[in-house]
Every structure is written in structure tokens, then in C-alpha cells.
Amino acid sequence: MAKHGKKYLEAKGKIDPEHNYSPDEAVTLVKETSFTSFDATVEVHLRMGLDPRKADQQLRDTCIMPHGLGKTVRILVFAQGEGASTAKEAGADIVADDDEWIKKIQDGFTDFDVAIATPDMMGKAGRLGRVLGPRGLMPNPKAGTVVQPDDLQRAIEEAKAGRVEFRLDKTANVHVPIGKVSFSEEMLRENFAALMIAIRKARPAAAKGGYIKKITLTSTMGPGIKVDPHQALSMEIS
Fold first, then answer.
1. What pTM was computed for the model?
2. For an engineered disulfide with 61, which of 13, 43, 149, 202 has Cβ 3.0 to 4.6 Å away?
3. pLDDT, tens digit, for every residue of 111-129?
């Protein structure tokens, strides 16, 4: 079992491990208990009452964080011709429009946060599944990252503004960043609410019983704070 340092133990001492905090209380605590010297990321971890083995109980969608994520988002776009020009004008950091870029990514280049593709480039982008898939970077229509050239500008702007994808993993968990510890409580609360609204809307029709079993709010290296799932699910952006 890993030994925790003095700062972690002090932070953990401020939290009742048996108590389910309200979202507002949890946001206050996550800022109070962050002890890193850098601006830590605040994350929401959800334990879902879904069976990831069943096709009709999958959960995958996107959410736009009202206050972004507090970081510069590097965007790669697979596009050619007019689509490539549109992507450059819309602020894409990298436009992969030839085989040279495809090979570079095949060889392991992943210095970007979001990959967007036009449908006519999915044949080439699809060959990169082994590199992009495990990193959650594979363009996908459900995640809003496979778009027609006319939609490229909107998709790039949304990704830059803080659109995040969430999905159920093989262990029935969902992990989503909602901002930085330096954000105000109000900013974190509104980003948290935006995520919970999106999770609520994306509930699969086949979901039975308790949709969310457990919610934990945490900061990088900080202790986990249990959040009341019922209160979190009824969150709204004020």
C-alpha cells in the first residue's frame, strides 16, 4: 500500500470519508484540499449503474464546459482541399492533409488534445486506430469529431472553448476533467453542473435501477471527496 505524505494526510483529515457532500460543499473542499505547487486539475469520477458489456447500456457523449478547462487545447484536423483551408482559417493547430502526416502519427506522434476529421478522410484516419484509440483521440461521429467541411469551424471553436467527451469505460466508470483548482467556486460549480446535465440527458433507455452509484470529486494528487449522486444529478446552471 502506497504511503502518503504529510500534506496529503492533512488534506484528507478535512474530509469525512463516510459523508456524501453536496456539490457546492465538494467544490469548496476540492479547492481547500489541493496542495500541489502547480495548478491542479479538478476531476469528476462517476461509478455508473450500467453494464459496459451490453450494447444498449453504453454511455458516450460530449459536454461544453461554460468556463473551459483552463488549458490551451491543441487541435489536429484530418481534412483535404477546401476542408483543409477551412480548418486552417478556423484555428486548427495541425492540418493532416497528406500521407506524410498519416505516417508521422502512425509512428507515434500525438502532440495534440483533440482530433477532428471530415468524412472523406476517415478512410485514412481509420488506419490510425492503434495509435489514436487507446488515447481517446480517434475521431467519432458520436463525439462530434467527424464533421462535414461546413461544420469544421464550429467543431474547432467548440473544442477550443472546452468541449469534452465522456464515455463509459470497461469497468463502468466515467472520468471527466471540469477545470483547474485556480477556478473560482462558481466556475467549477457551473462546469460540474454542465457535465451532470449532459450525463442526465445521455442516460441510455436500457439503464435500470440506480443510474449513478457513486460520484467522487478530486484534484490532481488530492484526496477524493464523495458527492451525493441525487443532488449532483439535479444540478442546474444558475
1. 0.80
2. 202
3. 998 999 999 999 999 899 9
